[in-house]
């Protein structure tokens, strides 16, 4: 029986739940309620920023990648756990953020969101021998290619992308360091995981995390705070800091290392803090790498840093939290091979 | 007994046949006649474009990489199947296309063509665990390095390369959409597999494919047509489309997925069409990636897209066509490990 | 018992010896005396060039990465053999060479040097299936990210980096080809392994190699000579040649292929010469790749070329020199899996 038929035989609520879990899995949470709160935060922020297409793109990308998993007869359990949707929803947020509202964009959005489903399968196959996962890299890799393609395809309007440049434009803007502002930067760091520039959305996301896993909520908060501290100490550009652009990758690294792959304890906490700090430097480095292309790093810095901290395969206790079981399962499968 | 000695013991015709098969294997055809027609097409196009060095470079590269395989004692069967020559002949086409006619260029051409033989061996070792093949990536990787090196080495004259740029030069040229022109673009898409800008050469190549495998000929034709359609719908630059530069990678993807690795049937046909469409976007994205360097993507978009569609290892019937046996053999070897 | 405790239980001299061996292992020599001579050469050159921070950075990086190995409970034998320090000492040379003397630089230097220790562990895990080693790539990879990060972080002052550019600045400088000058370029090619622009340092390094392994000293000398020849024949920029910037990667390739991984004999000698020539082209190609970023290739060309020549896994005799045992051990471990 195909995966598509299996889903058809379930009540509709199962498909809806699996789809919503896809939103939650962007931050490693296998909870439809978390996913719903994430979507609510996206809608709030997208409408606040007068870019409603971002919110609707998220829905379209989420559904397209989930349906692709069913059609391609991907593993049924993965579908139930929401592992098809998290790359697709990010594609759906990124395309309308950086591209103009053309019919070709929407077609490409659907195509690219579906593409991430089998690219994830392929990348996971590649990484299985080392017991790591492709994380959100299928989204990053495929979206990079389409963002680059805007330069060569008039049907994809990349006017919202940065101008390609050799040097970072000099800026005399200094960072507003009042307590209220710092709190906003800190919340935006969490909101930017879904490319949303709104501190209210950050609250939605934090609540979404906390209702599913206290540890994840705390690590997201700590990760954003650490990244803020390091970015300020090392003099990162004020505009990037105040938009939360130095926060989103460290937030994901902190959740991944701090409580998703390893049990929460002192050893994993120290490891997560070091990894979070490293992510800030990787973020700055990759920002520079993107400068001649004018495209965003997306969550690339998170992926690369998290791999660097997982690949040594240090003997640390694996998480036993059932909420994260789908992430550790891949590792267990690789170990049993 | 070494591979070199084994070849010496055979009649000369065996070495000639194996070398010609190397030309055919660029499009996955293990036929010396196909290879001969490909070479004829290259000579026609090179002389038509007043760049005879491209044709002679092809011969030199083909022979150099084949001889390298003998000297390095590579697997004898691979040699008989023509698997050493296909990267080398492409090196031989690319060097005189992009570099001036200096003695250093010819020495580097021979060196680089031979290099591809053991780089292919190394890359295939790397990819064996995932049952994919390095395809033409040894050619792409090595040639990229030498094309880049022209910027630093006066002995390699890279004046025929594009100027490095941050932005694609604006162009008001619009595409001639008459039926006759479209047919020319479509044929040039096939001819550009060997970097030849001539629609007549495209006919040579199509005939070469058809005498060996009807399916390969049809997929090449379909692949070029699909890429033309997508490139026009997404507003790719007129000059690139009219030179067939959006066609050559999709043509190779279509042959690879449509009839080389999988049996020809409806499932593989759908998969090949999706892969061909994806290749057009990867082509546009990689074109943008090369912009600050002014070098060509070569067949990189074909390699990357084909890997993305093979790596999920979906259960599809492997081809049983003996013409493609050398390509599926690697996969079988990996499975038996 | 943890690795840290194991080292504490040894006399202090063991820790000192292991640390110094880390300096020697940059050129594959497991000898504390070689390491000491290398350090002496670094100090001589750094003070001669009025950049003493480079010498002290080397010491700090060497110690930081070695201590990281102890704290992280890395394999005790690796520590004794000096395999933790060689990436760290290179980080320590590179940071003050390219960055200004800020407290953030020194903090980042220590962080990055320690980072290389577990990144090396992770990269070695990744490469184990193909029986190759990450060589100095952990240093290259991590340092690239921090050098790029200088563009985005005012706390890291990258004024000593080249300006990002699309084209190599035209230069009318011609190379002084007198015998004395050629000898200096040749010695600087060896000195630049540690980023030192001083021919006297090259003598220190040559002597350091010769007291540990005659073969290594000869291959370093031959490697630098070959690279000089190829760079001149292909018209590389005079300023790069005269600073030894075309020599350091070929020197390392020559030692690696010529006498570290394979037994010294005619077959490995021919292979080493070809690999050394290839490294020069890879160097020129990667120089061009770095142009839009203004950062250095570091020892990246050495790593890439050496992998290309090891990955085919041709059956050549492995070295039995105990001096190089720690490098071949990884390969043996991979074979026994």
Q: Secondary-structure element order of chain A, as H and E?
A: HHHHHHHHHHHHHHHH
The number of distinct helices of chain A, counting runs of at least 4 residues, comes to 16
Over the alpha carbons, how many angstroms does the gyration radius of chain A reach? 19 Å
User: Gap between N and C termini of chain A, in Å?
Assistant: 25 Å
Report the portion of residues of chain A in β strands.
Answer: under 5%
Mean pLDDT level of chain A: 93
> Might you state the CATH topology name of the largest domain in chain A?
Ammonium transporter fold
Largest interface: A-B, 34 and 31 residues
Shape field of chain A: globular
Q: How many E-type strands of chain A?
A: 0
CATH architecture of the largest domain in chain A: Orthogonal Bundle
CATH superfamily name of the largest domain in chain A?
Ammonium transporter AmtB like domains
CATH class of the largest domain in chain A: Mainly Alpha
Structure class of chain A: mainly alpha
Helical amount of chain A:
55-70%
The tally of structural domains of chain A comes to: 2
Contiguous runs where pLDDT drops below 50 for at least 5 residues of chain A? none
């Amino acid at each position: 029986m195909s995966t598509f038929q299996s889903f058809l035989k379930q009540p509709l609520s199962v498909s809806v739940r699996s789809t919503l879990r896809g939103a939650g899995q962007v931050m490693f949470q296998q909870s439809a309620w978390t996913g719903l709160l994430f979507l609510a935060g996206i809608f709030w922020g997208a409408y606040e920023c007068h870019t409603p297409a971002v919110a609707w793109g998220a829905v379209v990308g989420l559904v397209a990648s989930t349906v692709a998993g069913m059609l391609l007869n991907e593993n049924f359990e993965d579908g139930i756990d929401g592992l098809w949707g998290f790359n697709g929803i990010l594609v759906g947020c990124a395309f309308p953020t950086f591209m103009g509202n053309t019919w070709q964009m929407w077609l490409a959005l659907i195509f690219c969101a579906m593409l991430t489903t089998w690219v994830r399968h392929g990348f996971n196959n590649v990484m299985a021998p080392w017991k790591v996962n492709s994380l959100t890299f299928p989204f990053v890799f495929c979206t990079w290619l389409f963002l680059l393609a805007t330069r060569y395809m008039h049907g994809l309007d990349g006017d919202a992308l940065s101008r390609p440049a050799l040097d970072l434009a000099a800026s005399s803007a200094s960072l507003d360091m009042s307590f209220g502002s710092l709190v906003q930067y800190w919340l935006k760091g969490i909101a930017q995981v879904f490319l949303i520039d709104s501190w209210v959305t950050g609250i939605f996301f934090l609540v979404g995390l906390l209702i599913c896993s206290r540890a994840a909520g705390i690590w997201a908060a700590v990760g954003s705070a650490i990244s803020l501290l390091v970015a300020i100490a090392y003099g990162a550009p004020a505009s990037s800091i105040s938009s939360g652009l130095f926060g989103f990758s460290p937030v994901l690294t902190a959740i991944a290392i701090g409580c998703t792959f390893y049990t929460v304890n002192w050893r994993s906490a120290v490891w997560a803090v070091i990894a979070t700090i490293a992510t800030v430097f990787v973020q700055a480095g990759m920002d520079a790498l993107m400068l001649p292309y004018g495209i965003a790093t997306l969550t690339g810095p998170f992926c690369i840093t998290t791999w660097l901290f997982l690949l040594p395969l240090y003997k640390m206790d694996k998480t036993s939290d059932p909420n994260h079981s789908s992430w550790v399962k891949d590792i267990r499968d690789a170990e049993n091979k």
